[in-house]
Amino acid sequence: MSQPPYPPHGSPPSGPPAGGFGQAPPPPGGYPPPAYGNPHPPAAGIVDALIPTNPLAAVACWVGILSVLICGVGVVLGPIALVTGIISLKKGAIIQQSAYGKGASTARSWIGIVTGALGTLISIAFIIMQLVK
Question: What is the tens place of the pLDDT at every residue in 37-54?
């Protein structure tokens, strides 16, 4: 009688493992093992509150506020705040931040956009009123 095509039950198989050459076989059930590390973003710390993770958002916020407070200069500072706010929103979607840093950057960006637009409009109205006098 010839040799059976498969090894008898209970004997170890010969050849590479089931996962391919040099790879471990998949775990039972076919699911990969859980990933190492924390899948959640890091928690906010005191450093996140003091140092912004998106400095462009902070610049947009402060320049926008100054454009509202200083009449006449808002024509220059307002568009700067508007543009930096929009850029910081796009940049904020790309960079890795904690939940607090992402929320603070988004809020600062929107504050810069809104106050920059308001500062520009107020400054234009102020200049027109000065010219009409």
Answer: 655 555 556 665 566 678
- Quick one: tokens of 32? 């990969």
Distance CA 12, CA 6 (A): 11
39: which 2 tokens?
A: 């899948």
> How far is Cα 55 from Cα 20, in angstroms, rounded to an integer?
48
**What's the pLDDT at 34?**
61
Burial class (CB in 10 A: 0-12, 13-18, 19+), 120: buried
CB atoms within 10 A of CB 121: 15
Q: Are 97 and 40 in contact (CB under 8 A)?
A: no
Is the Cβ–Cβ distance between 41 and 35 less than 8 Å? no
Q: Which amino acid is at 49?
A: A
